[in-house]
Amino acid sequence: MEFYLSSDCASLARYVSKVVYLEDNDIAHIYDGELHIHCSKIGSEDFSFRTVQKLELELSKIKKGPYDNFMQKEIYEQCETTKNVMRGRVDAFTNRVVLGGLENWLTELRRAKRIIMIASKASFHSCLAARPIFEELMEVPVNVELALDFVDRNCCIFRNDVCIFVSRSGETTDTINALNYCIKKEAVTIGVVNCSGSSISRFTHCGVHTNTGPEKGIATTKSYTSQYIALVMIALWMSEDLVSKIERRKEIIQALTIVPSQIKEVLELEPLIIELCDKKLKQHDTFLLLGRGYQFASALEGASKMKEISYVHSESILTNELGHRVLAVASDNPPIIAFATKDAFSPKIASCIDQIIERKGNPIIICNKGHKIWEQDKQKGNVVTLEVPQTVDCLQGILNVIPLQLISYWLAIKKDIGVDLPRDSAMSAPDI
Amino acid sequence: MCGIFGYCNYLVERSRGEIIDTLVDGLQRLEYRGYDSTGIAIDGDEADSTFIYKQIGKVSALKEEITKQNPNRDVTFVSHCGIAHTRWATHGRPEQVNCHPQRSDPEDQFVVVHNGIITNFRELKTLLINKGYKFESDTDTECIAKLYLHLYNTNLQNGHDLDFHELTKLVLLELEGSYGLLCKSCHYPNEVIATRKGSPLLIGVKSEKKLKVDFVDVEFPEENAGQPEIPLKSNNKSFGLGPKKAREFEAGSQNANLLPIAANEFNLRHSQSRAFLSEDGSPTPVEFFVSSDAASVVKHTKKVLFLEDDDLAHIYDGELHIHRSRREVGASMTRSIQTLEMELAQIMKGPYDHFMQKEIYEQPESTFNTMRGRIDYENNKVILGGLKAWLPVVRRARRLIMIACGTSYHSCLATRAIFEELSDIPVSVELASDFLDRKCPVFRDDVCVFVSQSGETADTMLALNYCLERGALTVGIVNSVGSSISRVTHCGVHINAGPEIGVASTKAYTSQYIALVMFALSLSDDRVSKIDRRIEIIQGLKLIPGQIKQVLKLEPRIKKLCATELKDQKSLLLLGRGYQFAAALEGALKIKEISYMHSEGVLAGELKHGVLALVDENLPIIAFGTRDSLFPKVVSSIEQVTARKGHPIIICNENDEVWAQKSKSIDLQTLEVPQTVDCLQGLINIIPLQLMSYWLAVNKGIDVDFPRNLAKSVTVE
């Protein structure tokens, strides 16, 4: 008999496929080829047994394949991962979304008076990205909370609140603390995770698995887009019985089906981005990212990637907050990256970008293909454009974030930074 | 953003020099609002001619330009109208041709100054170019001037001699977006038009005689003779029919009027309001001052009238007429004349080098004033007259939504936790612009709190209108009497901070913070379980002014830090947790806007999610390490920083043993501030950051009170 003990299943995958998870306050005693589990506190556990589970991790999935770094591999996997999160769940013919993990809680979820989405960092950004579509489809207030701040504040939570916990690893300490808090307050809890058997997936009432596969790079890339789609699917699923939303739901579902191929198109921007990093961006150590509406989350996520991977101080700003102080910094010529894909706010975004151009800000604009509004400025060298396919406004952020992932990656490569193991960051943040 | 100023004198003799000085002085007082170019328009030497002077840069540059042009300053005018503008570029970079006033043609037939953004200006410009007009500038405002000329000429050709306000209505029909607008024309000598939509505008009235009434009637057109919709693109034939039909209807209406009493009543009200200056109807010397901000009017008169959106003010023959550019059911019939309370001396700098410094040092007084007469320290009570009648409704609210921009948003973040603690009502804090973009669901049992120093912030105003439409109860927390938000909300609290001239908000932040805390205390005053907490907070508030005075003594130390540790740095990280997260964000904002250093506020516990990658021995870090329930976790986060060779500056409480011990073994510095209740500590902790921003800017030789690209009141969205 052999036993392997680990804090993460990735290190076990090559040796075994059967595992037992310890709960809090468990004491495992291994001797004479036997495993004994004791409880350090009387009455603190409901369960009298621990099930042996089967690991599904494949060794090959953890290899880099033809890519130089895991991060690059995972960026390119987004064509498949976005497809996987929808597989068997989105039916484009009947325009329905099926989420088996939530089915038993349908009544409670649709009765929600308020939805609270709780997460940290990249998962927090995916919640921000999905928030407007929840509000639109369900017509209930939606709060997005940083898990840490949520717990610090001892927020008001009620029985008819629905709390959604988003975490790639399912082990993020702050998010788990928030989850325990909400369970105590009797709210209905949903987990959106990428690891089956993780704490959050086991403690929440119900949930959705993002089916993303292992993510080895520290910087979250494919998990972000998968979480984004999972959340949109939840919103579609919860709003299914509203007649007034039929057309909108149909529009979104049809657009979801072509997202994977559109991502493939965006990835073709890589040569242009490499050139851009070489010529324009490499020598800078401060960046500003501007987004509005659905694209504010894209700006936040992009800024986060650049901090983590390229070590540049980047900050995301709501485009229309320019007038509130941020423009003071713009004239010192930090590179400015602005999201200007088409949606309800396009004229206002164009106006803000005009103001930047007037101050010689020379922005990089992520816009849709065939968008002519900056053609003249482009000729004059005032702007650089990165063109992405157009999709429904609430899904555009999935495409828009990918150029930023590539920029972060290539900036790091150009600066000779270890991409997959950046200093001071961790995949799971279990400790405070 | 931009500033508008207009001056009209009627039967008051003024030399051209005096008129120029009045206009330029008006701009000087608006300079803090936006300042990359300035200009004025006055009557020329020949009848029906206009002089326009404009220049890039500050008001002082305009003075030099006028001196250079050397107009005859001794010519006197018994009646005159002049307009002026200070600009913040939104379309077209700062260049002389892009300065306002903008004109319709080389003969200066129509001259316009404009605040705001015309969102359909590209289409208008294309249309006008196709009709043969030649543009001199890249501005959206020039479209307005040329549109005036086009519509004037078209109507003239069709035999219609329109009144100035009638012509203006036709122009406004074509404009989309926001505007605060003044227009002057040689075709309407000694007349000026003022109108607004989304941008603030007020009119000051000055006369030797006592005002007869304190309101001006709004003049609505006859119901069945409303102005016709005349689209610009219609052909001449259909275009020409409109006004003629309007007159026919009007005549018919008069003939059909069989109710003499009603007619008399109308005439009486009409003449009464128009002649509000005169007892006997004889012409009276009068001066009008039109401005986008009361600060430029207060020197001349305290009697002011605020225009509403879609009001159209027409000043001529010593009279002020208010029309509506579009009719609304239930719209107010009058505009009241209010008395400003702002004193001139309050606006001046006093012994300080900059308004910002003055305002930082005023915080012991401004915080005291916010609380004065509202907190009873003996009985531990909070009395907010502006909210008193509405408190039971607020207590029953399903949700509180706090909506603001910039620094005001940070004051909401700072107080959110105490609201939730004291009221047990869920609280959302929203950036106004994002709130609008999302079309957030708002219900009748929501209470929406709008916080704005100026009371004119465009995004906050739009969000307010959005919430009113949905039946929510609205509360305003503002610092300006008579501002749009204070007049449109159901109830509110005035923060009594006094005028804030420096573009970076300092004393308004602390006053807003206190006003919000008082609001939260009011909500909880019927709860037994909150009594001890309320007493603790109220007694803590009592000490705040004195404690702020104490923190200000850190200035020499901070000045030195800025000259040594922080000099020549490009980036800065601020760490705060819990109540201090808002202080970190606000501190970062101050540093960004004043010293142009890229700084970011981070929740201390979020370090490990990426931000820690930035930490090394070179990056300056400021951390809030004052005592509260999260203190051990904050210490742990800071240890992670020092373990990676970071050497933070810790803002901690006086005589704190933990930091005293650590500073012996770790490379860190401390700034010691007094200790107070956790939910009030942010009031103390922000002061060192304000001073830091100020001295970083001064050491860089930056103009502290007028930072580039920024404006005091963001009135465009």
Describe this structure in words.
The complex is a heterodimer of chains A (432) and B (717). By secondary structure, chain A is an alpha/beta fold. Chain A is built from 15 helices and 16 strands. In chain A, helix 6 (173-184) links the parallel strand 9 and strand 10. In chain A, helix 4 (121-138) packs antiparallel against helix 11 (295-310) and helix 9 (246-267) packs parallel to helix 15. Chain B is an alpha/beta fold and 717 residues long. Chain B is 38% helix and 22% strand. A 15-stranded mixed beta sheet of chain B has the order 4-3-6-1-13-11-14-17-12-16-15-10-9-8-7. Chain B has a 5-stranded parallel beta sheet with strand order 21-20-22-23-24, with helices on both faces. A 5-stranded parallel beta sheet of chain B has the order 26-25-27-28-29. The chains are: A alpha/beta (432), B alpha/beta (717). At the A-B interface, helix 4, helix 5, helix 11, strand 13 and helix 12 of A face helix 12, helix 13, helix 19, strand 26 and helix 20 of B. Chain A: Keywords: Repeat.
Determine the structural class of chain B based on helices, strands and strand pairing: alpha/beta
Q: What is the overall number of helices of chain A? A: 15
Strand content of chain B: 15-25%
Regarding quaternary structure, what we see is: heterodimer
CATH class of the largest domain in chain A: Alpha Beta
- The parts of chain A where pLDDT drops under 50 for at least 5 residues are none
Number of domains of chain B: 3
Gross morphology of chain A is globular
Strand content bin of chain A:
15-25%
Q: Work out the helicity level of chain A.
A: 40-55%
Taking the alpha carbons of the first and last residues of chain A, their distance comes to 36 Å
Weakly predicted, low-confidence segments of chain B:
222-275
